[in-house]
Specification:
The chain is of the alpha/beta class. It has 21 helices and 15 strands. Among the domains are: about 120 residues, Alpha-Beta Complex (Glutamyl-tRNA Synthetase, domain 3), CATH 3.90.800.10; about 90 residues, Glutamyl-trna Synthetase, Domain 2 (Glutamyl-tRNA Synthetase, domain 2); about 50 residues, Helicase, Ruva Protein, domain 3 (Orthogonal Bundle); about 90 residues, Arc Repressor Mutant, subunit A (Orthogonal Bundle), CATH 1.10.10. The strands form 6 sheets. A 4-stranded antiparallel β-sheet has the order 4-5-8-9. The chain has a 3-stranded parallel β-sheet with strand order 1-2-3. The structure holds one RNA strand.
Length: about 500
RNA sequence: GGCGCUUUCAUCUAGGGGUCUAGGAUUCAUGCCUCUCACGCAUGGCACACGGGUUCGAAUCCCGUAGGCGCUACCA
């Protein structure tokens, strides 16, 4: 038992885009598996045929590919415990449902959803359990013969788990410790529906985790209330000895107000809640993604890892390998974490700072192309080296750097008022003449010559540089002047000065 | 309503009886740097939900209260 191989799983249902909270759950599973040399399984829980959304499964796979979270087995990854799509495991589940039925751990119920709805409306706090099941329409009240007759004539039914009342159930959670619940508060959960011949989540989950030899179930806190039910199911099957260990993660909450982080919050507050852009095939709605918004996957991973967990020291920037080394379920927080988008931006900024300029150039070139600019990679790389410390996203580079690629068409009024003096026009023309004489237009040489000219003339450095900036940039910002002029080149620099003097007078 | 989980700066969090006049990061403010804007650096502001215990001593342990969150489907 102690020798058991670590096996974890991430098991989404293909009902839409992968939520960022799900990404974090998958990440923690991944870190845990890697750290222990275990396996990470990708299972598709599509037992609700009504909620199936085409493309969702592919989307999820693509998301993890982008994020760099790798699975060892599962849908699209192969493995010896398949099939990994629950809709393809019907026959397996049927067998286990029968086992429960045969052992008297479950029973067949004919109550229709409408009938149950009526009950709930009529009786306060109605629950299908030990106190009410003998009043309902099921194999317990109908008897074997009549039950079989009803099934034979094609009546739809469900299989419910028979829960014995007044039993204390103990769930041992790695993050939360011992959680005790009395079985009387649990209802006789539906385990199987004859309508689509599929089990519900609870049954499928337990059967699959057992069959796939899952050792640890690391999932969101929303599952904690059903954990006792799962324990009971393991017990009913006689699998308690190999029951996985549970760890229920704190939830990701809305940045403002209260509640679980939802898709709407992203739309409302202007940040993505999905890893990739998602086109909803049903509504036609498009939701933004981290990838399309210019996030680096490493930054997303790092940010997410720290939402609900920390390494126990003050380290915040960690590579995936460091995360694998440091991750520890017992260091997970218990309370939900509000999703702080600003911090996410900061992480991305840090990762841009550390990323290779040429790689960033590869990402920026397509954006330049969108603006009709076809610049050589060397130039783009140089520009990025100069400018990347002032952006949080690659796409922000366009607004901050465009003056490197297009001459200003207008000059910022405020800057003009503050920096453009009466003599500036004349001085700029002098500067243009000086630059004209240079054969070597390198940053160093320009600086040497221009600074000497300024000193010789007794000009103020700022009185020259600020107007100079206005002529090249069109605004009062940007890196050091000779960095700019060196990138622009002699011809363009001088042309921009002359044009600006014309306009500004 | 019932059941469960949870509670340290605005936010993410460190902290597991004395080293806490509570540390880091983000955000915010100020200053330095400087040809501008950023970056960077420095400084500052901001928290132990409340009430009882236990103890020589509690952010840390116990009990209440309040708040927050989740679940309460033939959804996962």
């Amino acid at each position: 038992m102690t020798e058991r191989k670590i096996r974890v799983r991430f098991a989404p249902s293909p009902t839409g885009a992968l939520h960022i909270g799900g990404v974090r759950t998958a990440l923690y599973n991944y870190l845990f598996a890697r750290q222990h040399g275990g396996d990470m399984i990708f299972r598709i829980e599509d037992t609700d045929s009504n909620r199936f959304v085409p493309g969702a499964e592919e989307y999820i796979i693509e998301s993890f590919k982008w994020l760099g979270i790798k699975f060892d087995e599962g849908v699209s990854f192969g493995g010896n415990y398949g099939p990994y799509r629950q809709s393809e495991r019907r026959e397996i589940y049927k067998q286990y449902v029968k086992q429960l039925l045969d052992n008297g751990k479950a029973y067949i119920a004919f109550d229709t959803p409408q009938e149950l709805e009526e009950k709930r409306k009529g009786i306060p706090n109605f629950q299908y359990d030990a106190s009410t099941r003998m009043l309902m329409n099921n194999s317990l009240t109908l008897g074997k013969e009549q039950t079989e007759a009803l099934i034979a004539e094609g009546k739809q039914y469900v299989v419910r788990f028979l829960i014995e009342p007044n039993e204390e159930i103990l769930v041992n959670d790695i993050i939360r410790g011992e959680v005790r619940v009395n079985s009387s508060v649990l209802d006789d959960k539906v385990l199987y529906k004859s309508a689509d011949e599929l089990p519900t989540y609870h049954l499928a989950n337990i059967v699959d985790d057992h069959l796939m030899e899952v050792s640890h179930v690391i999932r969101g806190e929303e599952w904690l209330p059903s954990a006792p039910l799962h324990v009971l199911l393991y017990r009913a099957f006689g699998w308690e000895g190999t029951m996985p260990r549970f760890a229920h993660l704190p939830l990701l909450l809305k940045p403002d107000g209260n509640g679980k982080l939802s898709k709407r919050d992203g739309d409302r507050l202007g940040f993505p809640v999905f890893p990739l852009e998602w086109h909803d095939p049903k509504t036609g709605e498009i939701s933004s993604g981290y990838r399309e918004s210019g996030y680096l996957p490493e930054a997303v991973i790092n940010f997410l890892a720290l939402l609900g967990w920390n390494p126990g020291n003050n380290q915040e920037l960690m590579t995936i390998d460091e995360l694998i080394k440091l991750f520890d379920l017992s260091h997970c927080s218990k309370a939900g974490a509000k999703f702080d988008f600003e911090k996410g931006k900061w992480f991305n900024h840090e990762y841009i700072l550390h990323k290779d300029n040429a790689e960033l150039a590869e990402m920026f070139i397509p954006i330049l192309k969108e603006h009709g600019i076809d610049a050589p990679k060397e130039k783009v790389t140089t520009v990025i080296g100069l400018m990347k410390d002032r952006v949080s996203f690659v796409k922000d580079l366009w607004e901050t750097c465009k003056f490197f690629f297009v001459a200003p068409t207008a000059y910022d009024e405020k800057t003009k008022k503050k920096r453009w003096k009466e003599c500036s026009g004349q001085q700029m023309l002098e500067l243009a003449d000086i630059l004209e004489t240079l054969d070597d237009f390198s940053l160093e040489h320009q600086e040497e010559v221009v600074m000497k000219w300024i000193a010789d003339k007794g000009y103020g450095v700022g009185d020259i540089m600020n107007p100079f900036r206005l002529t090249l940039v069109g605004e009062g910002k940007g890196p050091h002047m000779f960095d700019i002029s060196a990138v622009l080149g002699k011809e363009e620099t001088i042309a921009r000065i002359r044009r600006a003097v014309e306009v500004l007078k």
